[in-house]
Amino acid sequence: MPSRTLPNIIITGTPGTGKTTHCEVLAERCPELRHLSVNQVVKDKECHEGWDDEYQSWVVDEDKLLDNIEEHCKTGGCIIDWHACDLFPKSWIDLVVVLRVDSAAHYDRLSSRNYPEVKLQENIDSEIMEVLLQEARDSYEEEIIVELTSNSTEELEENVERIQAWLKQWKEDNKSE
Ligand code: ADP
C-alpha cells in the first residue's frame, strides 16, 4: 500500500492523442491533483542533453528528470503528462491511462503543429503500431493500465469522468483509519 494520500496517474500516448488536454481538464476539475507536464519540467529545470534538430525536441536526461519530480511523486496527486511511461518507477504509479486516436484525426492534429515530416510520420506509425500501449504493458501491471480513445470531445468528457470516478474510489480504498 503506498504511503501517499493521493494517487499518481500517468496520462500517456503518442503526441497528438490528447494528453495535455486531458490533464488540463482533470486538474481543473480536481484541485487536489497537479498537472505535471514533463515537457515543462524538462525545459524549466534543463533536464536534457541538448536539442535534437531533426525531431525538433529536447533529448531528455531521464535521471535528472526523475530527480526533479521525485518529491512531488512521493507526496502523490500528480497527473504525469508524457509520451513515454517506462522511465517512472513502478512504486510511484497507481494508474496508467494510455490515450488512443484514429489515424485521420491524428494526422490532422499533427499537421496543424507543423511537425517535420519525419516526426509526423513516425508518430502516426507509432500510434498504429500501439507502441505506447505495449510500453505500458511491459512496464506496469495489467490491472492499473486503462486504454481510452480520444477522438472527440465527447470521448474526452467520458474519459475525464471515468478518471474522476477512479480517483474517488482510490481515495475511498486508501483512507487512513
Ligand atoms: P498531446 O498532449 O497528446 O500531444 P494535445 O492535448 O496537445 O495532445 O492535443 C492535440 C490537439 O488535439 C489539440 O488541438 C487538442 O485540442 C486536440 N484534442 C485533444 N484531445 C481531443 C479529443 N478527445 N477530441 C478532440 N480534439 C482533441
TrEMBL record:
It is an enzyme of class 2 (transferase). Residues 112-122 are annotated as: LID. Pfam families: AAA_18. SUPFAM superfamilies: P-loop containing nucleoside triphosphate hydrolases. ATP binds at G16, G18, K19, T20, T21, R113. Its main location: cytoplasm. Transmembrane segments: none annotated. The keyword Cell division does not apply. Its EC number is 2.7.4.3. Keywords: ATP-binding, Cytoplasm, Kinase, Nucleotide-binding, Nucleus, Ribosome biogenesis, rRNA processing, Transferase. GO terms for biological process: ribosomal small subunit biogenesis; rRNA processing. GO terms for cellular component: cytoplasm; nucleus. It comes from the Eukaryota. It is found in: Cytoplasm; Nucleus. One of its GO terms (molecular function) is ATP binding. The keyword rRNA processing applies. Residues 37-60 are annotated as: NMPbind. It catalyses: ATP + H2O = ADP + phosphate + H(+); AMP + ATP = 2 ADP. Belongs to the adenylate kinase family. AK6 subfamily. Interacts with small ribosomal subunit protein uS11. Not a structural component of 43S pre-ribosomes, but transiently interacts with them by binding to uS11. Broad-specificity nucleoside monophosphate (NMP) kinase that catalyzes the reversible transfer of the terminal phosphate group between nucleoside triphosphates and monophosphates. Has also ATPase activity. Involved in the late cytoplasmic maturation steps of the 40S ribosomal particles, specifically 18S rRNA maturation. While NMP activity is not required for ribosome maturation, ATPase activity is. Associates transiently with small ribosomal subunit protein uS11. ATP hydrolysis breaks the interaction with uS11. This is Adenylate kinase isoenzyme 6 homolog. It comes from Coniella lustricola. The lineage of its organism: Eukaryota, Fungi, Dikarya, Ascomycota, Pezizomycotina.
